[in-house]
Specification:
Blueprint lengths: L1 E3 L5 E4 L7 H29 L3 H15 L4 E8 L4 E4 L14 E2 L4 H9 L3 E3 L17 E9 L2 E10 L7 H44 L5 H16 L3 E8 L4 E9 L2 E2 L7 E3 L4 H9 L12
Antiparallel strand pairs: 1-2, 3-4, 3-8, 4-5, 6-7, 7-8, 9-10, 10-11, 10-12
Helix pairs in contact: 1-2, 1-4, 4-5
Length: about 300
């Protein structure tokens, strides 16, 4: 404010200066916390409303890429059939030819995170020997595991062009998002299992009713094979008949890649060359082979 003399002239001005740096910093922190809470709320709502895993990952990836990590972000899931981490098609910022890659546990940053179950934050990728370029070198990377129960089922991976692009707060946020995804995974897996079981029971009941009216053995075998294909949708399936007198195995029905292989029907194999089928015949035991997983 101004100070005036006897004749009304301005003698000087008085004022005060306040350092608002701390206040502005607090405002920025509070705004980021609010933005993060709103983001987590959106992801939670998406997880609750998604009907399929692909739908969930597509929508969540879009939200995170738009709001947090536009340069490079996505999900990689463990593929037990192929024994590697598979890049989900919703991944943002990666060349299309990289989508077919299968990354092994321990390979690169994402493989390391999957193998150890621990997050990795790289401030400068040029100083990290395990960094794998995703078509274009990024300056920094943040990768966290996705856990379902006590198993790591995939990873969330984010990269930014500049070095030092991520903070410890970003790591905490991405870990929280990974937990939300894991919860949604478990929900979808549960409902898929319930739906699949209901379908299997319905098909099994239909199979019992249908086969009870069939008298011809060959027709019955093909009918059973058809029902099993509908129930389990196997890539490969064989019905083999054992001739005890000749000690031979005859292929009654063979399915390859979901289609009946007519060329294999009727082929005869000595029991000693029957592999796993021969072992089942000799021991009269059911054998179930489970897929192996290194981690």
């Amino acid at each position: 404010k101004a100070a005036y003399g006897p004749d009304g002239e301005v003698l000087y001005y008085e004022g005060s200066v306040e350092n608002i740096t701390g206040r502005k910093r607090t405002e920025r922190i509070l705004k980021k916390q609010l933005d993060d809470l709103m983001l987590l709320n959106r992801i939670a709502a998406t997880g609750a409303g998604a009907s399929t895993l692909d739908d969930l990952l597509e929508r969540v990836t879009q939200i995170i890429a738009d709001q947090l990590f536009p340069d490079h972000f996505g999900v990689l899931l463990w593929d037990p059939a192929e024994g590697g981490l598979k890049i989900h098609p919703s991944y943002r910022g990666i060349p299309p030819e990289y989508l077919d890659l299968r990354i092994q546990p321990g390979q690169g940053v994402v493989g390391e995170v999957f193998a150890t179950g621990q997050p990795v934050l790289i401030a400068d990728t040029s100083q990290y020997p395990g960094y794998v370029e995703p078509g274009k070198r990024m300056g920094s990377e943040l990768c966290v595991p996705i856990r379902s129960g006590d198993k790591v089922v995939g990873v969330l991976n984010a990269e930014r062009e500049p070095a030092n692009g991520f903070s410890p707060e970003d790591e905490i946020l991405l870990l929280t998002i990974a937990d939300q995804l894991a919860t949604a995974f478990d929900r979808l897996t549960f409902f898929d299992a319930v739906e699949r079981q209901a379908l299997q029971l319905a098909l099994l009941n239909e199979a019992i009713l249908t086969t009870s009216r069939v008298l011809d053995p060959n027709e019955l075998i093909h009918l059973i094979a058809t029902q099993i294909m509908e129930l389990f949708k196997p890539d490969t399936f064989v019905v083999t008949l054992y001739d005890e007198d000749r000690d031979e195995l005859e292929i009654a029905v063979a399915v390859s890649q979901g289609e009946i292989d007519t060329n294999a029907t009727g082929k005869v194999v000595p029991l000693e060359f029957g592999g796993l089928t021969a072992l089942v015949v000799e021991l009269s035991l059911i054998h179930i082979s489970e897929p192996t997983r290194p981690y």
